[in-house]
TrEMBL record:
Protein name, entry field: Protein SirB1 N-terminal domain-containing protein
One Pfam family here: Transglut_core2
Limits of the Protein SirB1 N-terminal domain: 68-195
InterPro entries in the cross-refs: SirB1_N (IPR032698)
Taxon lineage: Bacteria, Bacillati, Actinomycetota, Actinomycetes, Kitasatosporales
Source species, domain of life: Bacteria
Taxonomic source organism: Streptomyces bingchenggensis (strain BCW-1)
Length: 279
Protein backbone atom coordinates (compact mmCIF):
# COMPACT_ATOMS: atom_id res chain seq x y z
CA UNK A 1 0.00 0.00 0.00
CA UNK A 2 1.42 3.45 -0.89
CA UNK A 3 2.55 5.50 2.07
CA UNK A 4 0.19 8.32 2.97
CA UNK A 5 1.68 11.74 2.24
CA UNK A 6 1.76 13.53 5.59
CA UNK A 7 3.54 16.59 4.20
CA UNK A 8 0.56 18.98 4.66
CA UNK A 9 0.24 18.02 8.34
CA UNK A 10 4.00 18.42 8.89
CA UNK A 11 3.97 21.81 7.23
CA UNK A 12 1.01 22.98 9.34
CA UNK A 13 2.80 21.89 12.48
CA UNK A 14 5.98 23.70 11.45
CA UNK A 15 4.07 26.90 10.64
CA UNK A 16 2.20 26.76 13.96
CA UNK A 17 5.40 26.12 15.92
CA UNK A 18 7.08 29.07 14.18
CA UNK A 19 4.24 31.37 15.26
CA UNK A 20 4.30 30.47 18.93
CA UNK A 21 5.00 33.39 21.26
CA UNK A 22 8.15 31.57 22.44
CA UNK A 23 9.20 29.31 19.55
CA UNK A 24 10.73 25.98 20.58
CA UNK A 25 14.06 25.98 18.74
CA UNK A 26 14.71 22.27 19.20
CA UNK A 27 11.24 21.32 17.96
CA UNK A 28 11.56 23.54 14.88
CA UNK A 29 14.95 22.01 14.06
CA UNK A 30 13.50 18.52 14.42
CA UNK A 31 10.56 19.40 12.17
CA UNK A 32 13.09 20.57 9.58
CA UNK A 33 14.84 17.22 9.98
CA UNK A 34 11.54 15.39 9.36
CA UNK A 35 11.47 16.80 5.84
CA UNK A 36 14.84 15.19 5.11
CA UNK A 37 14.35 11.95 7.03
CA UNK A 38 10.97 10.23 6.59
CA UNK A 39 11.99 7.72 9.29
CA UNK A 40 12.02 10.47 11.93
CA UNK A 41 8.61 9.96 13.56
CA UNK A 42 7.07 11.35 16.74
CA UNK A 43 8.97 8.85 18.87
CA UNK A 44 12.20 10.01 17.24
CA UNK A 45 11.39 13.65 17.96
CA UNK A 46 10.61 12.79 21.58
CA UNK A 47 13.86 10.81 21.84
CA UNK A 48 15.90 13.80 20.64
CA UNK A 49 14.22 16.12 23.16
CA UNK A 50 14.83 13.54 25.91
CA UNK A 51 18.51 13.36 24.95
CA UNK A 52 18.80 17.13 25.27
CA UNK A 53 17.14 16.88 28.70
CA UNK A 54 19.55 14.10 29.69
CA UNK A 55 22.60 16.11 28.68
CA UNK A 56 21.27 19.14 30.55
CA UNK A 57 20.93 17.00 33.67
CA UNK A 58 24.66 16.30 33.52
CA UNK A 59 25.65 19.99 33.62
CA UNK A 60 27.04 20.97 37.05
CA UNK A 61 24.52 22.88 39.15
CA UNK A 62 24.88 26.68 38.83
CA UNK A 63 28.54 26.78 37.74
CA UNK A 64 28.83 30.54 38.34
CA UNK A 65 29.49 33.42 35.93
CA UNK A 66 29.65 33.36 32.11
CA UNK A 67 33.15 31.90 32.01
CA UNK A 68 32.22 29.10 34.38
CA UNK A 69 29.12 28.25 32.33
CA UNK A 70 31.18 28.16 29.14
CA UNK A 71 33.78 25.91 30.80
CA UNK A 72 31.09 23.59 32.16
CA UNK A 73 29.46 23.14 28.76
CA UNK A 74 32.83 22.69 27.05
CA UNK A 75 33.81 20.07 29.61
CA UNK A 76 30.56 18.17 29.13
CA UNK A 77 29.75 18.52 25.44
CA UNK A 78 33.18 19.19 23.97
CA UNK A 79 35.39 16.96 26.12
CA UNK A 80 33.20 14.25 27.62
CA UNK A 81 30.82 13.69 24.69
CA UNK A 82 33.10 14.99 21.91
CA UNK A 83 30.59 17.23 20.12
CA UNK A 84 32.57 19.14 17.47
CA UNK A 85 32.89 19.62 13.72
CA UNK A 86 35.30 19.24 10.85
CA UNK A 87 35.55 20.28 7.21
CA UNK A 88 33.96 16.98 6.15
CA UNK A 89 30.75 17.89 7.96
CA UNK A 90 30.03 20.62 5.42
CA UNK A 91 29.55 17.92 2.78
CA UNK A 92 26.79 16.04 4.62
CA UNK A 93 23.11 16.91 4.88
CA UNK A 94 23.06 15.07 8.23
CA UNK A 95 25.21 17.89 9.61
CA UNK A 96 22.13 20.15 9.40
CA UNK A 97 19.69 17.69 11.02
CA UNK A 98 19.44 17.94 14.79
CA UNK A 99 18.63 14.29 15.52
CA UNK A 100 21.62 13.19 13.43
CA UNK A 101 23.92 15.70 15.12
CA UNK A 102 22.85 14.32 18.50
CA UNK A 103 23.52 10.79 17.26
CA UNK A 104 26.83 11.42 15.47
CA UNK A 105 28.02 14.27 17.73
CA UNK A 106 29.20 15.99 14.57
CA UNK A 107 27.63 18.82 12.60
CA UNK A 108 27.80 22.32 11.22
CA UNK A 109 28.62 25.18 13.62
CA UNK A 110 24.99 26.31 13.82
CA UNK A 111 23.61 22.83 14.63
CA UNK A 112 26.30 22.20 17.23
CA UNK A 113 25.40 25.60 18.64
CA UNK A 114 21.74 24.55 18.79
CA UNK A 115 22.79 21.57 20.92
CA UNK A 116 24.73 23.86 23.22
CA UNK A 117 21.90 26.39 23.37
CA UNK A 118 19.26 23.80 24.20
CA UNK A 119 21.37 21.94 26.75
CA UNK A 120 22.55 25.15 28.44
CA UNK A 121 19.07 26.69 28.44
CA UNK A 122 17.59 23.61 30.09
CA UNK A 123 20.35 23.78 32.70
CA UNK A 124 19.51 27.40 33.50
CA UNK A 125 22.44 29.12 31.80
CA UNK A 126 22.24 32.71 30.49
CA UNK A 127 22.95 31.57 26.91
CA UNK A 128 22.25 32.93 23.43
CA UNK A 129 23.25 32.30 19.83
CA UNK A 130 25.58 34.57 17.88
CA UNK A 131 25.24 34.59 14.09
CA UNK A 132 28.63 35.70 12.83
CA UNK A 133 29.07 35.95 9.06
CA UNK A 134 30.21 32.52 7.91
CA UNK A 135 30.18 31.01 11.40
CA UNK A 136 27.90 30.52 14.41
CA UNK A 137 28.88 30.52 18.07
CA UNK A 138 27.21 30.81 21.47
CA UNK A 139 27.46 33.44 24.16
CA UNK A 140 27.03 33.25 27.93
CA UNK A 141 26.13 36.20 30.14
CA UNK A 142 24.99 39.64 29.05
CA UNK A 143 25.40 40.10 25.27
CA UNK A 144 25.69 43.86 25.81
CA UNK A 145 27.87 43.63 28.91
CA UNK A 146 30.02 40.95 30.53
CA UNK A 147 29.89 37.86 28.35
CA UNK A 148 31.95 34.94 27.10
CA UNK A 149 31.80 33.50 23.60
CA UNK A 150 32.40 29.82 22.86
CA UNK A 151 32.80 27.95 19.58
CA UNK A 152 30.99 24.57 19.70
CA UNK A 153 32.47 23.62 16.32
CA UNK A 154 35.87 23.71 18.02
CA UNK A 155 34.72 21.78 21.07
CA UNK A 156 33.82 24.92 23.00
CA UNK A 157 36.98 26.97 22.60
CA UNK A 158 36.49 30.30 24.33
CA UNK A 159 36.69 33.29 21.98
CA UNK A 160 37.42 36.90 22.74
CA UNK A 161 35.57 39.54 20.74
CA UNK A 162 38.82 39.95 18.81
CA UNK A 163 38.85 36.22 18.03
CA UNK A 164 35.30 36.55 16.76
CA UNK A 165 36.33 39.49 14.61
CA UNK A 166 39.08 37.35 13.08
CA UNK A 167 36.52 34.65 12.24
CA UNK A 168 34.37 37.29 10.55
CA UNK A 169 37.35 38.72 8.67
CA UNK A 170 38.22 35.23 7.46
CA UNK A 171 34.68 34.69 6.22
CA UNK A 172 34.37 38.08 4.54
CA UNK A 173 37.93 38.40 3.33
CA UNK A 174 38.25 41.90 4.80
CA UNK A 175 39.23 43.20 8.25
CA UNK A 176 36.38 43.40 10.76
CA UNK A 177 35.87 45.46 13.89
CA UNK A 178 35.87 43.61 17.21
CA UNK A 179 32.09 43.82 17.60
CA UNK A 180 29.65 40.95 18.02
CA UNK A 181 26.13 40.89 16.55
CA UNK A 182 23.03 40.96 18.73
CA UNK A 183 21.70 37.58 19.91
CA UNK A 184 20.00 35.55 17.18
CA UNK A 185 16.34 34.70 17.72
CA UNK A 186 15.10 31.11 17.31
CA UNK A 187 13.43 31.97 13.99
CA UNK A 188 16.59 33.65 12.69
CA UNK A 189 18.51 30.50 13.60
CA UNK A 190 16.01 28.25 11.81
CA UNK A 191 16.07 30.44 8.69
CA UNK A 192 19.86 30.30 8.64
CA UNK A 193 19.76 26.49 8.95
CA UNK A 194 17.35 26.34 6.01
CA UNK A 195 19.60 28.71 4.04
CA UNK A 196 22.49 26.30 4.64
CA UNK A 197 20.41 23.36 3.41
CA UNK A 198 19.34 25.32 0.30
CA UNK A 199 22.95 26.19 -0.48
CA UNK A 200 24.06 22.58 0.06
CA UNK A 201 21.36 21.27 -2.27
CA UNK A 202 21.87 24.01 -4.88
CA UNK A 203 25.39 22.68 -5.45
CA UNK A 204 23.89 19.26 -6.25
CA UNK A 205 21.55 19.58 -9.28
CA UNK A 206 20.05 16.15 -8.64
CA UNK A 207 18.68 17.36 -5.27
CA UNK A 208 16.20 20.03 -6.34
CA UNK A 209 13.65 18.28 -4.11
CA UNK A 210 15.75 19.12 -1.05
CA UNK A 211 16.23 22.70 -2.20
CA UNK A 212 12.48 23.00 -2.77
CA UNK A 213 11.38 21.82 0.66
CA UNK A 214 13.98 24.05 2.31
CA UNK A 215 12.58 27.04 0.41
CA UNK A 216 9.01 26.08 1.23
CA UNK A 217 9.73 25.76 4.95
CA UNK A 218 11.48 29.15 4.86
CA UNK A 219 8.34 30.66 3.33
CA UNK A 220 6.32 29.37 6.29
CA UNK A 221 8.35 31.46 8.74
CA UNK A 222 6.65 34.72 9.81
CA UNK A 223 9.55 36.73 8.37
CA UNK A 224 11.51 35.71 5.27
CA UNK A 225 13.09 37.31 2.20
CA UNK A 226 10.47 37.94 -0.50
CA UNK A 227 12.88 36.69 -3.16
CA UNK A 228 12.38 33.16 -1.84
CA UNK A 229 9.08 33.12 -3.71
CA UNK A 230 10.96 33.64 -6.96
CA UNK A 231 13.44 30.92 -6.02
CA UNK A 232 10.54 28.53 -5.40
CA UNK A 233 9.01 29.46 -8.77
CA UNK A 234 12.25 28.73 -10.62
CA UNK A 235 12.57 25.39 -8.86
CA UNK A 236 9.02 24.43 -9.82
CA UNK A 237 9.77 25.22 -13.46
CA UNK A 238 13.05 23.33 -13.29
CA UNK A 239 11.17 20.32 -11.94
CA UNK A 240 8.61 20.49 -14.77
CA UNK A 241 5.69 22.16 -12.97
CA UNK A 242 5.46 24.97 -15.51
CA UNK A 243 1.97 26.23 -14.62
CA UNK A 244 2.59 26.55 -10.89
CA UNK A 245 6.04 28.03 -11.47
CA UNK A 246 4.76 30.62 -13.94
CA UNK A 247 1.92 31.60 -11.60
CA UNK A 248 4.37 32.04 -8.72
CA UNK A 249 6.63 34.19 -10.92
CA UNK A 250 3.72 36.42 -11.92
CA UNK A 251 2.69 36.88 -8.29
CA UNK A 252 6.26 37.73 -7.31
CA UNK A 253 6.46 40.25 -10.17
CA UNK A 254 3.40 42.03 -8.78
CA UNK A 255 5.07 42.28 -5.37
CA UNK A 256 8.27 43.90 -6.69
CA UNK A 257 6.80 45.92 -9.59
CA UNK A 258 6.41 49.18 -7.67
CA UNK A 259 10.06 49.31 -6.55
CA UNK A 260 11.79 47.35 -9.32
CA UNK A 261 9.74 47.62 -12.52
CA UNK A 262 12.53 46.37 -14.78
CA UNK A 263 13.13 43.33 -12.59
CA UNK A 264 9.38 42.66 -12.49
CA UNK A 265 9.17 42.72 -16.28
CA UNK A 266 12.11 40.30 -16.53
CA UNK A 267 10.30 37.92 -14.18
CA UNK A 268 7.11 38.19 -16.25
CA UNK A 269 9.11 37.26 -19.36
CA UNK A 270 10.39 34.17 -17.58
CA UNK A 271 6.82 33.31 -16.58
CA UNK A 272 5.68 33.56 -20.22
CA UNK A 273 8.60 31.39 -21.31
CA UNK A 274 7.64 28.79 -18.68
CA UNK A 275 4.04 28.69 -19.92
CA UNK A 276 5.27 28.38 -23.50
CA UNK A 277 7.04 25.15 -22.58
CA UNK A 278 3.60 23.53 -22.18
CA UNK A 279 2.96 23.77 -25.92
Amino acid sequence: MPRRDDTPARRRRFAEAAREERPDLALLCLLVAQEADPELDEDGIDAAQIELDRLAGLVPYSPGGPGAWAAALAGLLGDRFDFRGSAADYRRLESSLLHEVLRRRRGLPILLSVVWLEVARRAGAPVYGVALPGHFVVGFGDPYGHHVLADPFDGGRVLSDEDAALLVAGALGVPSAATVPAPATPLEIVLRILNNIRAWAAARPELTDVQLWAVELSLLLPSHPARLRYERAKLLVERGDFVAGAKEMEEYAEVVAAMEPNAAEAVRRRARAARARLN
